[in-house]
Amino acid sequence: MSGSMSKMSLFPGWRLALRALAVCLLLAAGAFFVSCSDGKSGKRSDEDGASYFDTLAEAERVIDAQYPSGGIASQAAREELQKIHKSGRPEAEKIRLIEEKFLSGAKPDGVRADGTRSVSLPGGVKLEMVRIPAGSFTMGSPSGEPGRESDEKTHRVALTKDFWLGKYEVTQAQWQAVMGNNPSEFKKGGNYPVEQVSWDDAMAFCRKLNDAGLAPSGWRFDLPTEAQWEYACRAGTTTAFHFGTSLNGTEANCDGNYPYGTSTKGPFLMATCPVGKYRPNAWGLYDMHGNVWEWCSDWYGDYGGDATDPVGPKSGGDRVLRGGGWCVNARDCRAAYRVRLTPSLCLNSLGFRVALVRVQ
Questions:
Q1: Which of these, 87, 156, 104, lies nearest to 303 by C-alpha position?
Q2: Dihedral, CA atoms, 224, 226, 232, 234, nearest 10 degrees?
Q3: Using only C-alpha atoms, what is the Rg of the chain?
Q4: Quick one: residue 324, left, alpha or beta (phi over 0 = left, psi -120 to 50 = alpha)?
Q5: CA 53, CA 176: separation in Å to the nearest integer?
Q6: Which DSSP symbol is given to 352?
Q7: Which H/E stretch holds residue 20?
């Protein structure tokens, strides 16, 4: 009797367990079907994890391929990748960011879809550059331009190779990322231009970029030639400034107490200001007039006649600076105005802008 009762108590429990198991299997199958047929999810959650780590590994391979020699460029890219990895965002968002920044957002040589270039520096700092097309222009100022100096003789210049130029003057954050210090007097923020840098210092910055393997094959970082600088500044214009014929400190950072082309005085900030504060020229370059003087690669010398890809004299005592600065009158910020200084000199109005040029 006891054995019969044992069987009666056991068999109903087994039946219930089997039914529960069958229901669970059916529910699991239904959930799998819904997941696979849902256009929004597309993959099971366990595959999402695999997809994320596959994307992470692919980004690592891209960095290795782009910077085979390592250096600060590779370091900066890996720091940016790690920042995304540790961000705490959902994996789907991380995948999107990694694909955008490392896999599909730029061509292998760092050129974006809009034609600009972004160079990664340590600490996630970016160096933005703009492509300047080959072309020709009239260099110098016309005889009727007010304030014209005798060394601004007009002549035709042909630049047969395109090049890249910094969208902004080199900032304190960029200098710190590459050189490990900040020599500037106006330490108001990383987006202010670095100043108190000599021509020698600016060239050392360019060499660091080249030694780090940041330049694509066939290219090198350098200071722009004087001709490249004026061509890029004008961006197809022929007026004293790329924005017109007058300046009083409203359109660029200079001493507005001494305006040009107008009798109306304007602001005088008495210091540098953040890069990009004023409107850019037609090619997307900021602060080509005012803020800090910009070193060029050339030795200073008188212009000759018409020229093709001029690089200045073979030797000299002074290097050329262009663009004017925060402490000078508006006349000295004209596109054609030239200054000469010893290459070892450092002042709080001297900065520079990086060029990326083809290797000769």
A1: 156
A2: 160
A3: 30
A4: left
A5: 33
A6: -
A7: helix 2-37
Nearest Cα neighbor of 154 from 223, 230, 244 is 230
Token reading at 226? 């004087």
Q: Measure CA of the first residue to CA of the last residue in the chain; give whole Å.
A: 104
Residue pLDDT, tens place only, 312-342: 999 999 999 999 999 999 999 999 999 999 9
Question: What does the DSSP 8-state code read for residue 103?
Answer: I
* Contact present, 178 and 160 (Cβ < 8 Å): no
* Cα–Cα dist 40/43, whole Å: 9
Structure tokens at 274: 């953040």
Q: Cβ–Cβ contacts within 10 Å for residue 300, how many?
A: 19
The residue type at 343: P
> What pTM, to 2 d.p., does this model score?
0.73
Residue 167, pLDDT score: 97
- The structure tokens 């602001």 sit at 267
What the block records as the tokens of 13 is: 């429990």
Exposure b/e, 88-98, CB count within 10 A at least 16 = b: eeeeeebbebb
Structure tokens at 62: 């891209």
pLDDT digits (tens, 9 = 90+) for 47-82: 455 678 888 887 887 777 666 556 666 777 788 888
Q: How would you list the strands of the sheet with 293-299, edge to edge?
A: 339-341, 319-322, 293-299, 350-351
Question: The tokens of 329 are what?
Answer: 């009158």
Nearest CA-CA partner of 169 in 220, 256, 229, 219? 229
Give the residue among 193, 258, 241, 214 at the shortest CA–CA distance from 120. 214
Rounded Cα gap, residues 112 and 116, in angstroms: 5
| Closest residue by Cα to residue 282 from 230, 241, 235, 239 | 235
Q: In sequence order, what are the residues at sequence separation of 6 or more whose Cβ sits closer than 8 angstroms to the Cβ of residue 230?
A: 137, 139, 322, 335, 336
**Spatial distance between the Cα atoms of 109 and 213, rounded to a whole number of angstroms:** 12
Distance, in Å, from the CA atom of 50 to the CA atom of 68, rounded to the nearest integer, reads 26
Structure tokens at 219: 């290219």
